[in-house]
Design goal:
alpha/beta, Beta-Lactamase, Heat Shock Protein 90, 4 domains, 5-stranded antiparallel beta sheet, 15 helices, 49% helix, 19% strand, rod-shaped
């Protein structure tokens, strides 16, 4: 209780407004401050009441003392916002008192708690997901919990939707993964099956190749074994044809000669077509002069054309070409032979003309021509134009031409007019000017006398030796016949003028071995030639490397005599 002697002190005195003059001086400024504070309070009140997020203040025990309408809306009591106040915060939490105790402890430890996710209980019995930011504000009267609550229903819905989508995607990925695993398993099974099939195919291919090799060996052996007796018969008949015989006997010999010629051509065609189908023939491309090829063709077909009453002519430039001599010869021989066979009268012409770096080769005839609808058919096996053919055959000549041409990458052109004739043509490369043509043995035009010429014939077939002796002695030769080199060294006392040797002899010996031994024995480069039924490219290359002339069996006497003339003229 204030003593009477103590001066009286008012609030105005304490803040400096005790005097009249002071009050007049500070009142307007104070009034402005009070108005500013009131405006600020009203602004915060407006923000509090109109905030989108819920705001509340609660005691440390969890009793809500103040809350805004947004919190009432979150709790589904927007029409009665006072129902939120005076409630326990624990009653709003999904986890109840236990969850509140955990929240309070974290606030006491940290002073704040941000982005705390939970669910509030609504008055309608449902739950609403919320996110809370909580602060612990300490005052003299005690600590206060201030909270800001956001409705995250839409966010949770989106999260749930995204989670559902992710789960669906994961399920699809899992399904696809299982499908891919199953597909990979099937692929592994297919790969294993394919590998097994490839192994089986490789084994089958190897077996087929072995069979082909065996077939090639069989064909080579068969051609040798079949052509040897045929060669002996042809030589014997040729020897008889050169002798003076009675008309009847001469006619019989001539018929045998034609029959053997037909058999020879048939057998040669069958062997050639079989080798071509088995890819047993490989081209041996080289440079050679046309003169060598043309002389051989003229010698072979001139007499044949004369017998048929036809004129056979060759027109060609003096060029060198790049090709396989034997295969190109086979093409031309078949084309010329067909032309002579199907032409009744007139002529057959072999013409060659240069076209830049290529040579155009054409075989013309004045035969009956080929119908347009049959021009593709004639290149098939065993197909013949029956009309007009003067000599037999089985229809393999043009099939062989077609196969050889495709092997050499040549194209056969055919032009024909029915009743006037046909023309077959092909183009081959001309040798470059800088290339040196390989020289080949050529047949001289003049016939050298063979009287008294000593000839050594080496062959392991007795019938061949007998027929060769008969033919050569008919030409006036002195003939020695042996079956191998050892026998030749034992029986031959003086060097022969030439050696005619078969390639395949007994005991794995070859005619090349026999020629080499005889040349070493006599110390002279004796003229020699190979007479063989082996027509493989390997043996032809071997003969060329050894510098040996070669004639294929069955032998044609005219070619044999021309070769002997050439050997003697060297």
């Amino acid at each position: 209780m204030k003593k009477p002697s103590e001066p009286s002190v008012s609030v105005d005195d304490l803040i400096g407004l005790g005097g009249q003059s002071a009050r007049k001086s500070y009142y307007p400024a104070l009034q402005r401050k009070i108005e500013e504070l009131e405006a600020e309070r009203n602004r915060y009140k407006w923000l509090f009441e109109n905030a989108f997020h819920g705001i509340f203040q609660a005691t440390l025990n969890g009793r809500i003392e103040r809350s805004n309408p947004a919190l009432a809306r979150i709790c589904a009591v927007e029409d009665q916002p006072m129902l939120v106040q005076e409630r326990e915060l624990a009653s709003l939490l999904e986890g109840g008192a236990a969850e509140f105790i955990e929240i309070r402890q974290r606030l006491l430890d940290r002073g704040q708690l941000f982005l705390y996710l939970t669910r509030f209980k609504r008055t309608d019995g449902g739950f609403i997901p919320v996110s809370m930011n909580l602060l612990l504000r300490r005052e003299q009267e005690g600590a206060i919990i201030e909270g800001f609550v956001a409705d995250v229903t839409e966010r949770v819905r989106m999260q749930n939707q995204m989670q559902a989508i992710n789960e669906a995607l994961e399920q699809r990925v899992d399904e696809r993964t299982r499908e891919l695993l199953a597909l990979n398993e099937r692929l592994r099974d297919e790969v294993a099956e394919r590998q097994l099939a490839e192994q089986q195919m490789a084994l089958a291919k190897e077996a087929a190749e072995n069979a082909n090799r065996s077939k090639d060996k069989y064909l080579a052996a068969a051609s040798h074994d079949l052509l040897q007796p045929l060669n002996a018969a042809r030589l014997l008949v040729s020897a008889l044809r050169e002798r003076q015989l009675q008309a009847y006997e001469g006619d019989l010999v001539e018929r045998v000669h034609r029959a053997l010629s037909g058999a020879e051509h048939l057998l040669s065609d069958l062997l050639d077509i079989s080798k071509l189908d088995q890819n047993a023939v490989q081209p041996d491309i080289q440079t050679f002069p046309l003169s060598h090829l043309l002389r051989n063709l003229e010698a072979e077909f001139q007499s044949l054309a004369e017998e048929a009453g036809l004129e056979f002519r060759i027109r060609a430039p003096n060029l060198s070409v790049r090709s396989d001599l034997r295969l190109l010869s086979r093409i031309l021989r078949n084309l010329i032979g067909n032309a002579i066979r199907y032409t009744d009268s007139g002529r057959v012409l072999l013409s060659m003309r240069r076209r830049g770096d290529r040579l155009l080769i054409q075989v013309w005839d004045t035969g009956p021509g080929i119908p347009a609808e049959r021009r593709d058919e004639i290149f098939l096996e065993f197909r013949q134009l029956k009309s007009g053919a003067k000599r037999g055959g089985v229809g393999l000549g043009l099939a062989i031409v077609d196969r050889i041409a495709r092997m050499l990458d040549y194209r056969i052109h055919l032009d024909s007019i029915e009743g006037k004739g046909s023309r077959f043509g092909l183009m081959i490369p001309v040798a470059e000017a800088s290339e040196s043509p390989q020289q080949f043995a050529s047949t001289p035009s003049r016939d050298v006398t063979l009287n008294g010429v000593r000839v050594l014939v080496v062959d392991n077939e007795p019938e061949i030796l007998v027929s060769m002796r008969a033919l050569l002695e008919g030409w006036g030769c002195r003939v020695d016949t042996v079956q191998g080199a050892d026998e030749a060294l034992q029986q031959t006392l003086e060097p022969p003028a030439m050696i005619l040797a078969d390639y395949h002899l007994d005991n794995d010996e070859t005619g090349i071995d026999a020629i080499r031994l005889l040349r070493e024995h006599f110390g002279q480069p004796l003229p020699a030639a190979m007479l063989t039924a082996d027509r493989s490219g390997e043996t032809r290359r071997l003969f060329r490397e050894q510098g040996l002339a070669v004639l294929n069996k069955p032998l044609k006497p005219g070619k044999l005599r021309a070769l002997m003339n050439h050997l003697l003229a060297q």
